[in-house]
Inverse folding.
């Protein structure tokens, strides 16, 4: 059955599908986790859950900027003057605006043979992990200064050969940027925790090519993925919100 037909059928039965959303959203293929590519069934479910997204727009960005120390706003639109743009805010002030590359938003086949949809999911997210150095073993591609915010999807540096693609949808799902920009973003996120100065964090060598930053977390409120509302639940993260929207 064609992908679009599958998507329409699932949308028609959204109320039933949402009852098993938690199991459908579980990634079982490590390539999706390490390379930011989303299985088609998860992409469809994600789109269903994002049907009502009153906060995922520029107004939602403005609200977040007022409530969080650091905000990373990613406009994943394919066209328009603000398309494929990342804006970085600190303490209510915009300190950076750069062209980036988000997911190609199409059906693709990974090296494992599984079919994926190379999407950058929309929503409000807290960072989950930060790496000074990160290597994708599946694609043998470095991802310096990776700030992961959902599954295997991160804001990270891309190689100079991909710089001409910035400003277009060109990734497997991650948010690509230039090396010096990724370093600034990573350090600003760290500063929204316990800081990026020596002694305030530790580098953990998880495996070859993967150097994770730890001991830098703080307790913050979770945010609602669709609206950006601040929830009562506390989590260990950074006082940073990543917003991915399309307008």
């Amino acid at each position: 059955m064609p992908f679009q037909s599958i998507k329409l059928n699932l949308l028609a039965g959204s109320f039933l599908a949402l009852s098993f959303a938690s199991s459908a959203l579980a990634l079982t293929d490590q390539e999706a986790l390490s390379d930011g590519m989303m299985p088609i069934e998860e992409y469809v479910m994600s789109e269903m859950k994002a049907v009502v997204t009153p906060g995922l727009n520029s107004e939602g960005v403005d609200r977040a900027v007022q409530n969080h120390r650091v905000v990373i706003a990613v406009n994943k639109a394919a066209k328009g003057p603000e398309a494929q743009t990342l804006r970085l805010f600190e303490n209510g002030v915009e300190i950076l605006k750069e062209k980036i590359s988000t997911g190609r938003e199409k059906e693709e086949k990974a090296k494992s043979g599984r079919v994926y949809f190379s999407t950058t999911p929309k929503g409000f997210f807290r960072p989950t992990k930060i790496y000074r150095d990160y290597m994708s073993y599946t694609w043998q591609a470095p991802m310096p200064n990776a700030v992961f915010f959902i599954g295997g999807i991160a804001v990270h540096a891309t190689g100079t050969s991909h710089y001409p693609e910035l400003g277009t949808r060109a990734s497997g799902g991650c948010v690509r940027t230039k090396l010096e920009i990724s370093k600034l973003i990573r350090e600003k996120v760290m500063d929204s925790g316990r800081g990026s100065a020596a002694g305030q964090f530790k580098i953990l060598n998880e495996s070859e090519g993967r150097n994770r930053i730890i001991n830098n977390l703080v307790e913050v409120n979770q945010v609602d993925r669709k609206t950006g509302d601040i929830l009562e639940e506390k989590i260990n993260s950074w006082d940073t919100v990543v917003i991915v929207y399309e307008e």
Observations:
- Helices lie at 3-12, 14-18, 21-24, 30-35, 40-49, 58-67, 179-191.
- Residues 55-103+120-245 form a domain with the L,D-transpeptidase catalytic domain-like fold (CATH 2.40.440.10).
